[in-house]
């Protein structure tokens, strides 16, 4: 939707073009085509990476497209509950209190669930708002309403940021 060349769709298209160009270079023996294909492939990979990157400062997220979003409160509250729960578990182990360890373990588990609930909420609303922004932007573009088109672009970009932030956090947890 935005014009910053960090679109996933554009990266896939450039990657496909690079594959075709590489095949053509192999077929004709043209090192120029092969070199250009390799450069286009690298550019496509960079575009894909940029379209998925999100800067995070506390509960705020910013993307290269200028999209800004705030995390669902359950994400930060759940993370806090995990931290406090882990501290209670450690303290309980240190002082020999099974009750404190159990309480900490339970709070940690509840925090994980709460954070996951917030991530799923952000992911779902991000996808929904991206569709709304893309569709609204197309309609506004067809009707020539540039102000509405820009508003829909902002909605799309903010929603993409929210979705990508949730995806990144979910992936980080899956990797750990």
User: Could you tell me how far the N terminus lies from the C terminus, measured between alpha carbons in angstroms?
Assistant: 33 Å
| Unreliable stretches | 1-6
The H-and-E topology, N to C, reads as HHEEEHHH
User: What fraction of the residues are assigned to beta strands by DSSP?
Assistant: 5-15%
Strand arrangement across the biggest beta sheet: 1-2-3
* Helix proportion range: over 70%
Characterize the largest beta sheet: strand count, sense, and whether it forms a barrel.
Answer: 3 strands, antiparallel
Q: Count of helical segments? A: 5
Q: Average pLDDT across residues?
A: 86
Q: Globular, elongated, flat, extended or rod-shaped: what is the shape?
A: flat
How would you name the oligomeric state of the polypeptide chains in this document?
single chain
Gyration radius, rounded? 22 Å
- Structural class of the secondary elements? mainly alpha
Using DSSP, what is the number of strands?
A: 3
Task: Write a concise keyword list for the protein shown above.
176 residues, mainly alpha, 3-stranded antiparallel beta sheet, single chain, disordered N terminus
Concise description?
This protein is mostly helical and 176 residues long. The protein has 5 helices and 3 strands.
Fold and architecture overview:
The chain has 176 residues and is mostly helical. Helices cover 81% and strands 5% of the residues. It contains 5 helices and 3 strands, in the order ααβββααα. It has helices at residues 8-28, 31-52, 73-95, 98-143, 146-175; strands at 55-57, 60-62, 68-70. Strands 1-2-3 form a 3-stranded antiparallel sheet, with helices on one face. α1 packs antiparallel against α2 and α3 (73-95) runs antiparallel to α4. The radius of gyration is 22 Å and the shape is flat. The relative contact order is 0.13.
């Amino acid at each position: 939707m935005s014009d910053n060349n960090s679109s996933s769709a554009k990266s896939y298209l450039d990657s496909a073009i690079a594959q075709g160009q590489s095949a053509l270079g192999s077929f004709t023996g043209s090192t120029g085509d092969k070199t250009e294909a390799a450069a286009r492939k690298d550019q496509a990979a960079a575009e894909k990476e940029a379209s998925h990157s999100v800067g995070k400062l506390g509960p705020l997220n910013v993307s290269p497209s200028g999209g800004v979003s705030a995390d669902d409160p359950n994400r930060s509250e759940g993370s806090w509950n995990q931290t406090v729960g882990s501290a209670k578990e450690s303290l309980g182990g240190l002082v020999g209190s099974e009750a404190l360890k159990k309480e900490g373990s339970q709070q940690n588990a509840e925090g994980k669930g709460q954070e996951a609930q917030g991530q799923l909420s952000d992911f779902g609303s991000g996808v929904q708002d991206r569709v709304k922004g893309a569709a609204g932007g197309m309609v506004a573009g067809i009707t020539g309403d540039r102000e509405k088109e820009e508003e829909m672009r902002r909605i799309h970009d903010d929603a993409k940021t929210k979705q990508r932030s949730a995806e990144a956090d979910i992936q980080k947890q899956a990797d750990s």
